[in-house]
Amino acid sequence: MADVLCIGDLLIDFVPTVTGTGLADAPAFEKAPGGAAANVAVGLARLGVPSAFGGKVGEDPFGHFLADVLRREGVDVTPLRFDSRARTALAFVSLRADGEREFLFYRHPSADMLFTAADLDQAAINGAKALHFDSISLASENPRDACLYAADLAGSAGKLVSYDVNLRLPLWRDAEAAKAGILAGLEKAQVVKLSDDELEFLTGARDPAAVRRLWHDRLRVVTLTRGAAGSVWMTPDSQGEVPSFPVKAVDTTGAGDAFMAGLLAGLVATSGGSPDLDRICLIANAMGAVTASARGAIPSLPDRAAVRAFLTQQGRAADLRALWPEDSS
Fold it and tell me: Which positions are catalytic?
């Protein structure tokens, strides 16, 4: 059984072949497997953490391509469902010169929007140590109900429930619906990741202190990602800041998901003990930095060897060994 079950979206990202152009002006696009929850599952697998993915794709060539990608990465796709009523979701992602993105989704509806509570693999939930989901799946009724129900099942069974705010306004009816939906997911979680932009959207402030306005009794850890300013972690009674790693951003697609994978890998590795959140977030920052340095989400997610090489270059290899003592080579 997988240690972490990720449920949510699995799609094709079409990324322009050149950086710094809008979607309308892009000369051509490259096909890249992606989807926030799937990215996290692959990121975990590449770090050596057994992971599974639950969601829905179309009974079409893109859907089978994506399933094959996950299988090759070592992700358990037993909880993945296929549906002939709709096609696999597509997203066109424009890369600006600074590596930031413009999204155009093709979901009218897409197969992931047909994922229901009846499609959940309850054995996978029961067998996992942690369940991870994000707000992208909360923008549509069927997957929203499925994700929130899965979070309830996992929480009741004593599993760690992880949530990424992951704001994508074009998927929501309006900003108010997005805020209400995102908060509904946050209320179920014990571990939360959000960016400073997302914090501002939810609270009106970017200062890390504003995270406390979102706090509820279930929360154990909240991480705030701030790009070049690094990340902040918070627990009910403490917090810390962890610096980022300077890299040239080629494509930030998947960087937040890579951070999430690093965070979950660290928490799972130290479950039953007291997590060293400074070190865990340092490794999560490294995951995000490496991912942002290349094109595409899944194609650019680093494995443990790549993280080790990066941290060695930064003079921080001991931090990886402290978290995973077996990683001494």
Answer: 257
